[in-house]
Specification:
Length: 293
C-alpha cells in the first residue's frame, strides 16, 4: 500500500517538511514541473510558497508551451508570463520545448502509438519533482500530479497528440478530435507511463498543493473563483495514490463549496485517468494517509 503524506500547513516550511517526509532524495539536476499559469489567472502556485523547496533542491522550474493559442503558446510570450508571475525571481526557468521535442517510448498503451512527445530539454535533467496545484479542470475534470506529468511535460505538439487521442500533433487540428473523453483520459495515463519510464520511479517525487481550489485549471485566463476552503499539501512517491487520495478528500469533504467541483469531476469521469494509470502499472490506488502535522 502506497504512502501519502499530508499537512494542513500550506507554507514554505510546510512544503519543505512534507518533501522531507518522503525520505526520497532527488539527485543530480532536478527539474521542478509546475504550471506557470495563464496570464489573467490568479490561482497558480505562489512563487513565495515554492521558493524554499525549489532552492533547497537547487532546482530548475520547467514548463512547456501550450496547445491553445493563449499567451503561453509561443516561447517568447511564455517566458514573459513566467517573469510576470514571479517565477524567474526565485529560480532558473526552462521552457523545455523551446528548441523542439523528442519522442519518448511507452509500453502498454492503446492510443498514442507507443510514443509521447515531450520538450527536448527533458534530456538535461536527472530527476523531476511534479509540484502540482490540485484543482478542477474543464476537460480532465481535475488536475493533479497525473495531469501535470502528462499534459504538462508534453510539448505543444505532444499536448495535441494526447488531447486528440493520438490522431494529430497539430494544435489547431486537435479541436476536431476531442469527442472521446475516456480516450483522452487514457491517453493522459499513457503519457504518464512514458515519463515515469523515462526518468525511472526512483528519480521522481510528487506533491499536490490543494489551495485556491477552483473548478478551473491554471491554464484558464479567467478561472472561476475558488468555492472550497484550502485543504493542505499532499505528497507521495506514487502519483496514482496521490491523485486518488486528493480525489477522495474532495469527494468526502464536508465543505459545501465542493458541489461544483464534484459535479465537474463526475461529468468528465475524472477518476478514469487514475484507474488507467494503475492499470498501466504506474502506481496503486490503495494508499495509507499519514498526517505529519
Amino acid at each position: 500500500m502506497s504512502k501519502v503524506y499530508f499537512t494542513k500547513d500550506i507554507s514554505s516550511e510546510g512544503l519543505i517538511k512534507i518533501y522531507e517526509a518522503l525520505n526520497h532524495e532527488l539527485k543530480g539536476k532536478v527539474a521542478v514541473k509546475i504550471s506557470t499559469g495563464e496570464p489573467g489567472g490568479h490561482n497558480f502556485l505562489d512563487p513565495n510558497l515554492i521558493k524554499g523547496l525549489v532552492q533547497k533542491l537547487n532546482g530548475t522550474i520547467v514548463e512547456c508551451n501550450t496547445a491553445y493559442r493563449g499567451k503561453r503558446f509561443d516561447t517568447a510570450s511564455h517566458y514573459q508570463a513566467i517573469k510576470d508571475h514571479g517565477f524567474m525571481d526565485i529560480a532558473p526557468c526552462d521552457i523545455m520545448d523551446e528548441e523542439g521535442e523528442i519522442a519518448i517510448e511507452l509500453e502498454g498503451g492503446k492510443h498514442l502509438d507507443g510514443k509521447n512527445y515531450v520538450g527536448s530539454h527533458i534530456k538535461n535533467y536527472d530527476s523531476m519533482l511534479m509540484l502540482s496545484h490540485f484543482k478542477g479542470h474543464a476537460m480532465g475534470g481535475f488536475g493533479g500530479a497525473l495531469k501535470n506529468m502528462s499534459i504538462g511535460v508534453a510539448s505543444s505538439h505532444g499536448k495535441a497528440w494526447i488531447h486528440s487521442v493520438g490522431k494529430t500533433t497539430d494544435p489547431d487540428e486537435m479541436w476536431n478530435h476531442i469527442d472521446d473523453q475516456d480516450g483522452f483520459l487514457e491517453s493522459m495515463a499513457e503519457a504518464d507511463k512514458a515519463v515515469v519510464s523515462y526518468f525511472k520511479p526512483e528519480n521522481m517525487a510528487y506533491i499536490n498543493v490543494a489551495n485556491k481550489i477552483s473548478i478551473d485549471c491554471d491554464c484558464d485566463a479567467n478561472p472561476h473563483d475558488p468555492e472550497m476552503a484550502d485543504i493542505g499539501i499532499f505528497a507521495s512517491i506514487d502519483p496514482v495514490a496521490l491523485d486518488q487520495c486528493c480525489y477522495d478528500t474532495i469527494m468526502n469533504s464536508t465543505d459545501e463549496g465542493k458541489k461544483s467541483l464534484v459535479a465537474r469531476m463526475k461529468e468528465k469521469n475524472a477518476i478514469h485517468t487514475v484507474e488507467e494509470a494503475e492499470r498501466l502499472g504506474i502506481g496503486s490506488r490503495e494508499y495509507e494517509l499519514i498526517n505529519i502535522d
